[in-house]
Amino acid sequence: MLIMAPSVCSDLWQIWQIIGWVLLVFKIVIPIIIILFGMIDLGKAVVASKDDEIKKSIKSLAMRAVAGVVIFFIPTLVGVVFKLVDGFNAVKGEYNVCSACVTNPGDCKSTAETHCTSDLGGSWSDDTGCTVTK
Length: 134
Hints:
By secondary structure, this protein is mainly alpha-helical. The chain has helices at 8-11, 13-48, 51-72, 74-84, 92-103, 108-119, and strands at residues 123-125, 129-131. α2 (13-48) runs antiparallel to α3 and α5 packs antiparallel against α6.
């Protein structure tokens, strides 16, 4: 069974948001780097006019493209795996906060605030985050 602190995502929403921004940058930068390196390698091979070099650089470009696609879809794959975990519904609200922060970091704070006030019945403060009184 998956055990998670009651408000780990709501309390640490800033960290999850940073992770989301880093992933967003990677999703943009890695394909650009792949395209640039592929163009450089393929350009060198074409200028050299060697068939073996051209085939080698095309194969290298294809492998880089596959790696870029895999990196681009890692957040989606992680989300699918988490949805398949048995007993995950016990922390579904917290997962939604983490998921929103990682996949859409711009909406992280509002999602954490909504979860705190609606699902947990707590109060939200920008300084302290979620406070649930029992």
